Amino acid sequence: MPEEITYNQLDRAVRARLRTLSKDNAEDVGRHLIMAGNLVDIDPELAYRHAQVALQRGGRVDVVREAAALTAYATGRYAEALREFRTVRRLGGSIEHLPLMADCERGLGRPERALAIAEEPDAQQLPRESAVEMRIVVAGARLDMGDAEAAHLILSRITAPNDELKARVDEAQVAVLRALGRDAEADELEASIPEPVEEELEEDIVLYDTAELPDPDVEDHEDEGFDEDEDDDFDAEDGLTEVTDGDEDEDDDFDAEPADDHGDEDEDEDEPEDEPDSDIDLADEDGNPEDRA
Predict the structure, then answer these.
(1) Looking at domain 1-93+243-259, which of 1.10.3470, 1.25.40, 2.40.128, 3.30.70 is its CATH number?
(2) pTM of the complete model beyond 0.90
(3) Is the pLDDT reported for residue 66 higher than 60?
């Protein structure tokens, strides 16, 4: 852990949430959160391990669960990420991660559930950038379901508010154009997308104090001390209640999912019946809902 990583570098709002922990523990958890945030785009696996240390020591704090969710998502542990995102939503009522929750459903091979999340009332209240992210996810879900035309229509209607989102929309459109057999257009669009700027990982950034953690690829996470059943215990002890209605049945399904998300395609045992394709304002004129790429 670099010496320059200090607790005071945390956002004031995050430090306020960590006040429920002892001073020493809060500082230690906070430094791991900083490292997780610094590394998530550079070395997601290392960021995940930092987040897991923080989770083990401060798992009742929403910002710690958020870090666990984001790093699990970044490493492709979609069932684990989805569970943590739902916990964050319960604890604080946040809707900002709805696009990532929907994309987790895609990653688990359940595009219909991704569309259901996009149709929730809360999804209609997303800020502009998050709404664009949700439309990209919806387009991809439609592509997953074999409706490339609907996916193309959705992406064509998006006006990206910044260059980063425009590049993401174009990348999604490339995949859709190839699915439609329009390879020449896909090649031309792909050539126009700017190359991402890669950040280099400093050699002195190392992980410390993680000997007590299990191998993150091992399915049994007993040492973490925070499984699905204990989430309910924490909610009961702290007087926490669901922020959104109608999620209780789905929570049972999600809590039953294993922490290891690799190969979670087999988790569709209690697949719900296909939901009606309401167009959430993403459908085309012919009633075909949009697909995400």
Answers:
(1) 1.25.40
(2) no
(3) yes
